[in-house]
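Quick start: read one record
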Amino acid sequence: MTEPGGDRVSQAVIAGEWLRIGVTGFGGPPAHIAQLRRLCVEQRHWLSPEEFEDGIAATSLLPGPTSTQLAIFCGWRLRGTRGALVAGVCFILPGLVIVLGLAALFLASHPPRWLRGVAAGAGAGVPAVAVAAALGFLPASWRRVRGARGRQARWAAYLAAGIACVAVAGQYLVAVLLACGLIETAVQRPALTRPRGGPPGLLPLAAALPAAGGVGALAWVALKVGGLSFGGGFVIIPLMQHDAVNAYHWMTSAQFLNAVALGQVTPGPAVLTVSVVGYAAWGVRGGLLAALVAFAPSFAFIIAGARHFDRLRRSAHAQAFLTGAGACAIGGIGGAAVPLALGLSHLWQAGITALAAAWLIGLRRGVVSALAGGGALGAIAALAHAPLL
């Protein structure tokens, strides 16, 4: 990877363009990537198509939100470290402000009945979002192992491990993700059963830290979301659910469904869901802390490692690790639909879940429209005096 391009683009221009994407970036990572490609490659010609594709390929190998890391990477290519910081902050900030504002409304002590209906309806669509996301990730992950029977069998086992972990002990998903990645690395490279300086030391940490409480617990949850989530934005759902609802009781199951829905329907990265969890735990300060901790690894990965992306892409170890961890993450995403569905309280919500599944999986329509439609139906149900929490 070549060095960044010096001063060819002003920081003011970067701030303005990335703020625009942060405000208009509805639709999740595919929409963000398309907007960045249109700006940096097609309109301004700041990056060549090859440079942009290399950025996508390299960031897809990293844990954390891929589209956020790509936004930071594009800023790094234009103005180095300062460009990366400006681009990342401006991409994240609009969604963060909107999410925290909506969290204050949805998590208020006595929100209006129609707003409670919107929350219940949008939340009812979230289990379908989890299943649709997992199904969307399956083909690319399967292509990694296609044609090799041993790898296919292990891939299926990693997938099943993710599903089982979320269903039985979701707090250990990080440990299981890392274990699956390390097992696949060891199998593919028998001479390197324990890669130097890598994730093994995180395994006991991942199991032990959730026992702590207070602000440290919130920081740890956010760190798992931003620094240890192989599989992108959707894998944060099973990572957060156990801690936010069961371990620390920061929010109810219904409120967690609302948090996930807010992260999906607002512009910017879906990882901003963690800010809603932070708000539920510690108010605005908690929301800001959760966002800071969750996105810090993405900045660190790009600023410290972007010049080494070529080596990362060629690394057989990285590819093997992602084969195992990625399959497990997909299983975790799909498996999260079960505890999410169990968080629904009323029969009419199950109808919205079924409609959302038909919209997303059957008709292959967008997440934002599915959740917005669920929210509208929820408001109608509330005005018709359907039962609410």
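Confidence is low (pLDDT under 50) at residues 191-211.
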